[in-house]
């Protein structure tokens, strides 16, 4: 491509349409001082190409320099003429000539779209497109791949989100968090203005889904509250009180009742051959079951104080507003109610973690809890670390939300007389039920984690692998449980804090014999129940939340059905 340096009249220059589309062309006052030092002309001449009208030229670079020359009263300017009329070449020149200039988020975004068109997807050549675009803009292949996804999603009214990322106002992670919320609540994002209102680098986008589910972006009063919450100017408790004043909580309850899917609710007590589920508060419900057995193993994971703050009513959730000592007393008193039902050599396992109080200090609830349990006649006889191989990425503003381990405390009524299964490792090898696997939270949907390893937990027959080889008496290691939806009906809550099967299975195997009674007073959606049933134990669970109770009942029915099918298959083979 030939180039010529020549002097032309400024009145013969016209900005190329693609230059105007991609870049902001406002004059720059700072250029005047520079031009005065260089003889009333720019150091680098603007670039032009031929115009269809032979008396004119298309500007493809240097529009701000031209505008500044006009303001200074100049009528002629020296330019570089690129002798090409090919539109593809001209568009590439426009991008290349601006590549090292000072571009804002809009300019970088438009350049990105230019390179997307330059390097279209090539079937059968995975990844090469992203690598080529990455080299053009100085980014990694993975970053480009993420931005292609976000650009395709937000194109149009949501362009400000992409421009925010290119302008370093938002992160790619922020973009995906916003994308998730828009997908879930598309009716809340009605215009370009809606997206602009949530584009603020100071926002905590981990709070976005909850706040969008309750408030309207377009209502200015509600937006002021929404903004305060995303800026972390108010606490979740203060936010909830504001929602109550606005009538939003009652509105959500009314909408829930109105939109419920009609399914037959089970009674307050669900009983099968091996399972008894009780719907009620574990501090108030009557503990009655048909198995005529004492509790050999009471295992479960109680709420963790102030840990989870995005519920509809944090003020009334277990542990909120309590000191570590108060919380320890509360939990120990809950467990004390089940002391009369424990066998003399039985065990209580508590999967627990500490939390921070409203003032930011650690509550030290674990230490207080152990002391209070001992005061009530439960003696600590074991302590294990549950080490998570795939803890959630530390992207949350409160870094203590994503600990890579939790503690498991074992208590007994008699520190010198508690049952330990001598056949633990034999039983670990005997498990046979296929199809009961746990996933982890950060997968790519194809059986791989973000770290590239297989994410499925082993079957129960390989449970022994979860015990750390070097210090197996102190550490249980494995993936975080994947919240499962198999038994959840429409409009029911998803339980996001389940104890994985391998963890509860190891605790049950250590402390019980076949046909012994296992109890979880924080039943949730029944992971402890599945462990007990698959290992041939009886099970009783207590659950306050009706959604979780209904899910557990359906899950129990399914699990026992599979166990019966497997047992019948074994009998057929034996015959």
List keywords for this structure.
5-stranded mixed beta sheet, 38% helix, Conserved hypothetical protein from pyrococcus furiosus pfu- 392566-001, ParB domain, 575 residues, 3 domains, Rossmann fold, elongated, alpha/beta
Proportion of residues in extended strands: 5-15%
Question: Largest beta sheet, briefly?
Answer: 9 strands, mixed
CATH topology of the largest domain: Rossmann fold
Task: Give the CATH level 1 class of the largest domain.
Answer: Alpha Beta
Low-confidence stretches: 260-266, 308-313, 394-401, 431-462, 468-472, 482-496
Give the C-alpha Rg: 32 Å
Secondary structural class: alpha/beta
Shape, per Cα inertia axes: elongated
How does this structure look, described?
This protein is α/β, with parallel strands linked by helices and 575 residues long. The protein has 3 domains: 3-98, Conserved hypothetical protein from pyrococcus furiosus pfu- 392566-001, ParB domain (Alpha-Beta Complex); 145-259, no CATH class; 269-419 and 485-574, Vaccinia Virus protein VP39 (Rossmann fold), CATH 3.40.50.150. Helix content is 38%, strand content 14%. The chain is built from 20 helices and 14 strands. A 9-stranded mixed β-sheet has the order 6-7-14-13-8-9-11-10-12. A hairpin with a 3-residue loop joins β6 and β7 (275-279). α5 (105-118) packs across α8 (159-166), α6 packs across α7 (141-154) and α19 runs parallel beside α20 (546-574). The longest helix is centred in the C-terminal third of the chain and has 29 residues, at 546-574. The protein is elongated and about 100 Å long. The protein starts with a strand and ends with a helix.
């Amino acid at each position: 491509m030939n180039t010529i340096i020549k002097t032309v009249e400024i009145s013969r220059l016209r900005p190329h349409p693609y230059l105007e589309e991609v870049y902001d062309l406002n004059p720059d006052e700072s250029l005047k001082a520079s031009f005065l030092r260089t003889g009333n002309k720019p150091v680098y001449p603007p670039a032009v190409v031929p115009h269809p009208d032979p008396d004119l030229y298309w500007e493809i670079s240097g529009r701000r320099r031209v505008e500044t020359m006009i303001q200074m009263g100049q009528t002629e300017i020296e330019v570089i003429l690129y002798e090409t009329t090919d539109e593809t070449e001209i568009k590439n020149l426009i991008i290349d000539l601006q590549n090292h200039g000072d571009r804002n988020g809009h300019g970088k975004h438009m350049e990105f779209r230019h390179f997307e068109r330059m390097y279209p997807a090539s079937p059968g050549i995975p990844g090469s497109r992203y690598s080529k675009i990455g080299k053009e803009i100085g980014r990694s292949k993975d970053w480009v791949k993420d931005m292609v996804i976000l650009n395709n999603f937000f194109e149009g009214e949501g362009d400000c989100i992409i421009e925010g990322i290119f302008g370093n106002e938002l992160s790619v992670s922020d973009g995906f968090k916003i994308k998730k919320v828009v997908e879930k609540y598309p009716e809340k994002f009605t215009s370009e203005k809606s997206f602009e209102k949530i584009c603020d680098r100071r926002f905590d986008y981990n709070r976005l889904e909850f706040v969008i589910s309750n408030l309207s972006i377009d209502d200015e009063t509600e937006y002021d509250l929404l903004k305060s919450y995303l800026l972390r100017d108010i606490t979740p408790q203060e936010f909830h009180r504001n929602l109550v004043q606005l009538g939003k909580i009652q509105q959500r309850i009314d909408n829930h009742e109105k939109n419920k899917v009609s399914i037959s609710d089970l009674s307050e007590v669900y009983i099968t051959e091996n399972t008894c589920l009780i719907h009620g508060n574990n501090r108030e419900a009557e503990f009655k079951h048909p198995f005529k057995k004492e509790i050999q193993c009471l295992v479960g994971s109680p709420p963790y104080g102030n840990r989870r703050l995005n519920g509809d009513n944090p003020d009334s959730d277990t542990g909120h507003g309590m000191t570590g000592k108060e919380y320890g007393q509360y939990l120990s008193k809950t467990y004390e109610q089940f002391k009369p039902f424990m066998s003399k050599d039985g065990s209580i396992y508590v999967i627990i973690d500490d939390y921070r109080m409203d003032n930011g200090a650690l509550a030290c609830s674990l230490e207080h809890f152990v002391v209070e349990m001992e005061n009530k006649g439960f003696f600590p006889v074991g302590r294990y670390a549950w080490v998570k191989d795939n803890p959630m990425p530390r992207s949350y503003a409160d870094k203590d939300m994503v600990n890579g381990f939790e503690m498991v405390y074992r208590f007994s009524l008699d520190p010198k007389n508690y049952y330990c299964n001598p056949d633990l490792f034999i039983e670990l090898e005997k498990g046979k039920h296929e199809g009961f696997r746990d996933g982890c939270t950060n997968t790519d949907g194809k059986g791989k984690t973000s770290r590239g390893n297989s994410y499925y937990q082993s079957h129960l027959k390989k449970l022994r692998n979860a015990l750390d080889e070097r210090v197996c008496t102190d550490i249980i290691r494995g993936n975080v449980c994947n919240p499962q939806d198999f038994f959840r009906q429409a409009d029911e809550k998803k339980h996001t804090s389940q104890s994985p099967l391998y963890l509860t299975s190891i605790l049950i195997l250590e402390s019980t014999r076949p046909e012994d009674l296992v109890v979880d007073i924080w039943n949730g959606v029944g992971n402890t129940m599945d462990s007990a049933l698959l290992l041939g134990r009886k099970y009783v669970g207590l659950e306050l939340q009706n959604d979780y109770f209904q899910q557990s009942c359906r899950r129990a029915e399914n699990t026992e059905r599979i166990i019966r099918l497997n047992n019948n298959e074994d009998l057929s083979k034996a015959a």
